[in-house]
């Protein structure tokens, strides 16, 4: 079955269970938020976050004062707009909305479920997609893989911050659920967008964990050989598996 969902293309990936802040200032996405705000109180306020494959989040400057169209900044003129977006995205539920005096919005959204983008409707102020839900399957051996990923992720964190063995006791607990762990590690690891997209689109949890184990071991080995690592203090920021 398919559903229609407003879309918010970004140069990043949202994962199920993870929280993302968004500053909404472009007119097309302000319209999106305003339309969701008009829904009945008991209606879900949600939209789809899709990673951009070809283009950028912010529309280029226009010669006229007209607001950006739904496809501005995405793909080549005349091309298939579906090619500009990755085909697998994540539903974002709005947890909080703060409207700013200049008409901008500060959002806090939570990723819920994955979807596959089937088609696009660009006739309105913002993109609307026809999407189908993607169920998550555990796959074979996800439990055993999760233990290896947890160890590799802790090693990766230590390498990033230059921590010593004595600091391990102060580290936050990681989730026991393999699926939740797989999404948390995918979000918390400093990887390029296309790699994070690959992890989001994994056919099941076991495949995602196996790929993460490979990536974490590689990244840890690379970091160990670097004489210095810029912006390592960013890895000390707390993360949330909400």
Keywords:
single chain, 242 residues, alpha+beta, five-stranded mixed beta barrel, 5 helices, 29% helix
Short structural description:
This protein has 242 residues and is of the alpha+beta class.
Given the structure, what is the number of helices?
5
Unreliably modeled segments:
163-168, 229-242
The tally of strands reads 6
Rg is 19 Å
Backbone structural class = alpha+beta
Mean pLDDT across all residues, rounded? 88
- % residues in beta strands: 15-25%
Please tell me what the overall shape is: globular
Percent helix, as a range, is 25-40%
**N- and C-termini, Cα separation:** 28 Å
Describe the sheet with the most strands: 5 strands, mixed, barrel
Strands ordered across the widest β-sheet: 1-3-4-5-6
Order of helices and strands: EEHEEEEHHHH
How is this structure best described in words?
The chain has helices at residues 27-37, 142-161, 178-188, 193-200, 205-225; strands at 2-10, 19-24, 46-51, 88-99, 105-121, 128-134. The protein contains 5 helices and 6 strands; from the N terminus they run ββαββββαααα. Residues 163-168 and 229-242 have low confidence and may be disordered. The two termini are 28 Å apart. By secondary structure, it is of the alpha+beta class. β5 and β6 form a beta hairpin. α2 runs parallel beside α3. It is globular and about 55 Å long. Strands 1-3-4-5-6 form a 5-stranded mixed beta barrel.
How would the blueprint of this fold be written?
Elements: E1 2-10, E2 19-24, H1 27-37, E3 46-51, E4 88-99, E5 105-121, E6 128-134, H2 142-161, H3 178-188, H4 193-200, H5 205-225
Parallel strand pairs: 1-3
Antiparallel strand pairs: 1-6, 2-5, 3-4, 4-5, 5-6
Helix pairs in contact: 2-3, 2-5, 3-5
């Amino acid at each position: 079955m398919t559903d229609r969902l407003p879309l918010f293309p970004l140069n990043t990936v949202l994962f199920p269970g993870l929280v993302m802040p968004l500053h909404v200032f472009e007119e097309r996405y302000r319209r999106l938020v305003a339309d969701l705000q008009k829904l009945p109180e008991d209606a879900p306020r949600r939209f789809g976050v899709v990673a951009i494959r070809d283009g950028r989040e912010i529309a280029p400057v226009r010669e006229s004062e007209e607001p950006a169209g739904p496809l501005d900044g995405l793909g080549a003129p005349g091309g298939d707009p579906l090619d500009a977006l990755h085909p697998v995205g994540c539903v974002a539920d709005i947890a909080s909305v703060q409207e700013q005096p200049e008409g901008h919005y500060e959002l806090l959204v939570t990723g819920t479920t994955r979807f596959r983008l089937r088609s696009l409707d660009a006739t309105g102020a913002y993109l609307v997609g026809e999407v189908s839900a993607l169920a998550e399957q555990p796959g074979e051996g996800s439990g055993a893989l999760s233990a290896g990923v947890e160890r590799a992720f802790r090693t990766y964190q230590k390498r990033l911050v230059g921590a010593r063995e004595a600091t391990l006791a102060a580290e936050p607990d990681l989730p026991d659920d393999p699926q939740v762990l797989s999404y948390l590690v995918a979000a918390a690891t400093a990887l390029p967008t296309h790699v994070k997209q690959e992890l989001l689109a994994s056919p099941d949890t076991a495949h995602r964990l196996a790929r993460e184990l490979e990536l974490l071991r590689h990244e840890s080995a690379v970091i160990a050989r670097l004489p210095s690592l810029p912006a390592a203090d960013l890895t000390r920021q707390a993360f949330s598996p909400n």
